[in-house]
Design goal:
The chain has 497 residues and is α+β, with helices and mostly antiparallel strands. The protein folds into 3 domains: 162 residues, no CATH class; 145 residues, DNA primase, PRIM domain (Alpha-Beta Complex), CATH 3.90.920; 159 residues, Alpha-Beta Plaits, CATH 3.30.70.3300. Helix content is 20%, strand content 27%. The protein contains 10 helices and 25 strands. The protein is globular, with a radius of gyration of 25 Å. The relative contact order is 0.10. The structure holds manganese (II) ion (MN).
């Protein structure tokens, strides 16, 4: 039994630690498994990192405090499984007992096993055997994705692993703010930094990192109707994005964003509706931006939606849809995903489904992993992680070759014809958007059409000819998400790291 070693090391007449409970007495299936980090002042201070799996707590001793900085990899020594009841243990282990010293809870919460979303899903136990775990923590201190990677075995000793924060919206580089700004090529308003001849920041000299307000973002005009036909107000839209932030932010993080703003909502054809690339200087300092040259050479301060406060501030400024670049600021010349935008034009949604399935088969035959989502309007988006890390021209040429294979297989249903008139009733397989400076609709955003539809990731098996994309909207989406253990599109982010 998994807890034999735990039991053998302890005398439960002496220590207040919980005795091992057989798995059958352990708590039944919960919605989400838990994690806990216990600060343990033993002969040496360390942090015990524990993940619930198969009725026990899989455990590692981490000598240094876990970090949200991806650069601060933490040694994690694998130790014996602990009973589930240990997750709430705090107290003093008496002198003479194993691990004598005080234990307190440093952080706790739930987690998602990211490996469960892989093409070949893995349980945590399988991941431990393979020496590679990825999980998203939902704690107070630790949030977002982490990896635990086993290092090469060096002998019969304990297994040495590394606990690593992965790049996402919760990653927080430690140390000097200026070094951080330089590394990411970021600038803040009023701190322009030095520039090259092209007008691109060479090294932003941020003297401080402005922080979002502690009290959160102030909402204004929450009664304003944004989707009048559905009675959806700006307050409802703010509430949507607040609840969606955990799912959405990883797709926005570190990507230059273009904001689709409707200050008067979807009132009618004459209501304002515009796409904002440049961030006004009047926006607060804590809104992160990156200066990039536009097509015409002038500097554009693109916003980076890297935290929930920025997200909600921009929604309060009447942003309805966020659009993001295909690259992150760390590597702007290379896309990290490729988009196939399937646009029905005069064809029906069932035709889009047919074309998407054919594209999926072609991609699978060439061993590419593909993800599908509703566009939120009339089409479907198929996204493929671009792991070859080439430039935009190569990525787009590859996408076009895949699209042409679809057209060859389904000449009656699909076309790569750019002229609308020549497409007829065929679905347009659009790949030309895969270009530097262009942007795509990420999953989990609202679209500016009646009904408040949401661009929604689907499992491939959900794609049926009678699928109704309008069924995924502001009023229904959270019921769907509550039933999901995992984001069906999470693999796109993982691969793009
Ligand atoms: Mn310990």
């Amino acid at each position: 039994m998994a807890l034999k070693e735990y039991q053998a090391k302890r005398d439960f007449r002496e220590t207040p630690e919980p005795p091992p409970a057989p798995a059958s007495q352990a708590q039944g299936a919960r919605h989400r498994p838990i994690f806990v980090v216990q600060e343990h002042h033993a002969s040496r201070l360390h942090y015990d990192f524990r993940l619930e799996a198969e009725g026990v707590l899989k455990s590692w001793a981490v000598p240094k405090e876990p970090s949200l900085d991806p650069a601060q990899k933490r040694l994690a020594v694998r130790v014996e499984d602990h009973p589930l009841a240990y997750a709430t243990f705090q107290g003093t282990i008496p002198a003479g007992q194993y691990g004598a010293g005080t234990v307190s809870i440093w952080d706790q919460g739930t987690y998602d096993n990211v490996l469960a979303d892989k093409p070949v899903p893995q349980t945590v136990t399988e991941g431990i055997q393979a020496g590679h775990l990825e999980f998203a923590l939902h704690g107070q201190k630790l949030q977002g994705r982490f990896a635990l990677i086993r290092m090469r075995r060096t002998g019969p000793d304990k297994e040495h692993w590394l606990l690593i924060k992965m790049q996402d919206a919760w990653a927080r580089p430690a140390g000097h703010a200026a070094a951080n700004a330089r590394q990411h090529g970021r600038v803040h308003s009023g701190q322009p930094g030095s520039r090259t001849a092209a007008g691109v920041p060479a090294a932003a000299r941020a003297r401080h990192t402005a922080r979002p307000p502690e009290a959160g973002v102030t909402y204004t005009h929450t009664d304003k109707l944004i989707y009048p036909e559905a009675g959806i107000t700006k307050g409802d839209v703010l509430d949507f994005y607040r609840r969606m932030a955990t799912r959405l932010l990883p797709y926005l993080c570190d990507r230059p964003a273009t904001l689709e703003r409707l200050p008067e909502g979807l009132g009618g054809s004459d209501t304002p509706h515009f796409w904002q690339k440049h961030t006004p200087a009047s926006y607060p300092d804590w809104i992160e931006r990156i200066a990039l040259p536009s097509e015409h050479g002038e500097e554009v301060q693109y916003v980076l939606v890297n935290n929930v406060e920025t997200l909600l501030y921009l929604v309060n400024q009447d942003t309805l849809t966020f659009h993001v670049g295909f690259s992150r600021v760390t590597d702007l010349d290379r896309p990290d995903f490729v988009l196939f935008d399937l646009d029905p034009g005069q064809a029906g949604f069932a035709d889009v489904v047919t074309v998407a399935k054919e594209l999926h088969q072609i991609l699978q035959a060439e061993s590419y992993t593909a993800f599908v989502k509703t566009s939120g309007k009339t089409g479907l988006h198929v996204l493929v992680p671009w792991e070859r890390k080439t430039d935009y021209n190569e990525a787009r040429a590859w996408a076009l070759s895949m699209a042409q294979q679809v057209v060859e297989a389904l000449p009656q249903h699909a076309t790569t014809e750019r002229s609308k008139a020549k497409r007829g009733k065929r679905v347009y397989v659009d790949v030309i958007q895969n270009a530097k400076g262009h942007h795509a609709v990420p999953p989990y955003v609202l679209r500016a059409v009646p009904g408040a539809p949401v661009s929604t990731p689907l499992r491939w098996q959900e794609l049926t000819p009678d699928l109704d994309p309008t069924a995924y909207n502001l009023k229904t989406i959270f019921r769907r998400l509550a039933r999901q253990r995992h984001d069906p599109m999470a693999g796109l982010l993982r691969a793009s790291l």
